[in-house]
Amino acid sequence: MTTGMNPTFQPHEPQPDRSHHFKQSLRERLRLAREIAALRARFAVVVEEYERVLRTLQLTAPTLGVAEHEVGHPTSPEWGVAALLTYADGHFLKAEQDRIDRLLHLLP
Asked: What is the DSSP string of 36-84?
């Protein structure tokens, strides 16, 4: 007989302990939700700063003899912030390091 199918089955944990554990889990869930919200807000700020730096590089590059398209963009600009969130991993960092190294070699 499977205990999961028996609606009268009760775990051995006493009711007050289950209630306490449930409330503790709810508090933990709220703490984690707040942490996620804070991380998302910080991520949005960093992405805005990153985009500002990219625009500055694209504007400055031609004055140094570097083509604007060489500065590039880590994702399709139409994708926006969501793409940076998706690709903000080791591949993104490696691609950025490679592009920066290439740009440094292009400078006079």
From this structure: HHHHHHHHHHHHHHHHHHHHHHHHHGGGGT--HHHH--SS-TTTTHHHH
Q: What is the mean pLDDT of the chain?
A: 78
Residue 25 included in any domain:
yes
Number of domains, the chain = 1
- Report the alpha-carbon distance of residue 36 to residue 40 in Å, rounded: 6
**Which pLDDT score, from 0 to 100, does residue 103 have?**
85
The reply to whether 8 falls in a domain is: no
Rounded distance, CA 75 to CA 89, Å? 13
| Helices and strands, counts by H and E, the chain | 4, 0
pTM of the model: 0.60
Residue that is written with structure tokens 């960093």 in the block: 46
Rg (CA), the chain: 25
Q: What is the extent of the structural domain holding 47? A: 18-106
